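Example 337.
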Amino acid sequence: MSKTIAVIPGDGIGPEIMTATLRVLDALDCGLSYDFVDAGMVALEKHGDLLPKATLDKIAEHRVALKGPLTTPIGDGFTSVNVTLRRHFDLYANVRPALSFPGTKSRYENIDIITVRENTEGAYRSEGQTLSADGEIAESVARNTRKGSTRIVRYAFELAVKKGRKKVTAVHKANILKTSSGLFLNVAREIAKEYPQIEFNEMIVDNTCMQLVMKPEQFDVIVTTNLFGDILSDLCAGLVGGLGLAPGDNIGEHAAIFEAVHGSAPDIAGKGIANPCALLLAAADMLDYLDMVAKGDQLRQAIRDTMTNDRDSVTPDLGGKGSTSSFADAIVKRLAA
Ligand code: NAI
Ligand code: MG
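Predicted structure in complex with NAI:
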């Protein structure tokens, strides 16, 4: 199969981990070609625009993008490029797998949780945020719609079916947030009936936090609204050893953007020690999305084998003495073996 994807190397450690990731993808021999486009600080410097129209056009054309982290400049007048991309392409499903790998600092060994977070509404709508003229009253209005709740819950169940998962947990706070969270929960209950083969349960978000820390093995697929999903998915990343291993997939009807959950890490940029795994795992999810599931699994297994057997080659955040490129070299070697 031959397929062209848009590639955004990104800022900070972005180009370093993207180079490593593309090298591994090439070694996997999955027939991908890359159309490189700019966004973030690189684009601002080159084109005077954080998110040039040409970049949006290329993503629209190829429908699939692999994206490095982007720095959002601090200060007025700059909206996050990430938020803009999610909105522009209506990438309503933010899928964040948390999977245990050997040799991390995690307390757990058998975590395999996918958080499916609603990515476009809830408490994160910029229109819903106001501050009174005297600066005394701040208001933030969460809005969940039946349409938005329906498509995210359906996405979670369809994902569960496709990946052979057993259980979907809807996380909510409908006992207090009776309307916004209540609507989401009602929709989840309705849709769950259409999937009798998947176990469905519901859990209040504060209890979910405790349960995730005490007994994470009970979770399989979690579906939730924007704010809760943001927080819970970072918690889940912490359960498996941190952001260096956390991919984030942004999926819509017409386009999908795969990225690492972490940012541009300016503190280690240019040092060659960034862990490429989060972006590599995002690339594995992208291969699943492109119906190359065997290749995606092969990549995850090669990462797992490298982390088990080539401890010296892994990056310092995982306790190794290696670099971004030695890590990638070791994975490429595993793929060739
Ligand atoms: P960050 O995720 O960039 O860094 C947090 C800490 O984790 C740092 O100590 C960093 O060195 C470490 N870290 C992150 N990724 C790593 C990797 N692959 N290997 C080893 N260590 C790693 O978060 P921070 O510092 O809050 O944000 C920096 C910039 O990134 C900001 O401009 C922010 O807006 C942007 N950002 C972009 C995101 C995106 O493009 N999706 C997501 C989050 C932040
Ligand atoms: Mg977050």
